[in-house]
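Archive transcription. Copying these from loose printouts into the bound notebook so they stop getting lost. Printout 1 of 2:
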Amino acid sequence: MLFRRRQPETFRQKLRGALWPRRSWRRSARYMQHRILRLRATPHAIAAGIAAGVFSTFTPFIGFHFIIAFAVAWLIRGSLAGAALGCLLGNPVTFPIIWASTYELGRYVLASETPDGQAPTAIGPALLHGDFAAVWTPYVKPMLVGSLPLGLAFAALTYVVVLFMARSFQESRHRRSAASRAIAAARADALTRPLP
């Protein structure tokens, strides 16, 4: 392969790279910012796609976040690539915070009692036999109810921030390209002008 490492990474190195950036958090955040702003779409499409990804990350349906993000982005005419990038909000660092906050908010909204802190008995066999109700009422239902207001709030905030950033980035890029076109036209005019 063209860019293969001379010495393949060990499992420990791969795990560390997945949980902690190789260079720094600041550099990784800058890289993601550039990836988002350079998407080829309108500022609304970029912001709507990112917001759809952020919203889907708050839902408790792990494994379906990309599908939910793509569906929501398609409905609101957002960028599908932006939706995929927005799903990156959900990672091993943020998922415990998201799950705890959605669960607590959902439990508050539903005014439900706290379970005894133990997982439902025989959760594996219940899910294998399709008895989703054993997990639905105590855990999934509060998380789903709590995910809606939190997901919508964070998606709206993300939409506004990304829309502003995408507009300003595209306007400055348009100004730079217009200036370079004007310089190129002036040079071409100077070359075609006859010598005195």
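Printout 2 of 2:
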Amino acid sequence: MPRVRSRVKKITWVISISVAVVIMIAATFTVKDMPLFDDFIFMAVVVAVFPPAILDYVDYRWKKSMDERLPDLFRSVVQAQETGMTLPQALEEASKRDYGPLSPELKKMANQMSWGLTFEEALQKFGKRVNTSLVRQTVPLIVEASRSGGYVEKIFAPMGSFIQTTLRMQKERKAQTRPYIAIVYVAFYVFIFTVILLFKTFFVQMEGDPIIGFSALTPQEAWRIFFHMSSIQAFFSGLVAGKMGEGTIRAGLKHTVFLMISGYAALKLIAW
């Protein structure tokens, strides 16, 4: 997975929201009093959320891959140190190996030290570029050890163990929260099933009833209300799923898009 810079994310948000606003304005002036108006608003919301959700997922996979390769990097540095290499030499040797998306950053770090940057400066620049949760935790510790005049090489072994433990705890947490994410999906689809069943067996059969027809909702009005309810529930259920699963609301955008589109398709193809 390639890296997605924060600047690209911001530009994507601006473009997506701008396109969504244009769709809403166009719908307001063209189909405001028509049933298609809700479809246009729904499409505008999906357009505003879908591209940022894709980029956020790609960036999440990149950061996850970076964190997972850190223990291998630290292990290689320790092995190189045991052979008598200096720390810059160990990092330069490690940059020649394949560590996935971590390799280009290591090469850049090795080049910066060859150009005259100190180990501490190159490491701080590396931390700013990568900026994952584990890198933010490990880089300051290594820098402080370097400033205190200790043997920086000896830090990499326990640091690798720390990262492995942290990754294992993250996997366990994700495994524990997966059932709750499944509950969010099940609850939404049970709601959709109930809506379809209610619509098919009640509102459609009630259309044209001479006794209550004048005061009851028409099937079109009922479908519109159910459509609004399902879209709102899909949007916020996805955000909740992301918060529970990955710890951030932004991570729930992909769940939001999937739930909204699947709920829309179910109501369009089955209920209406």
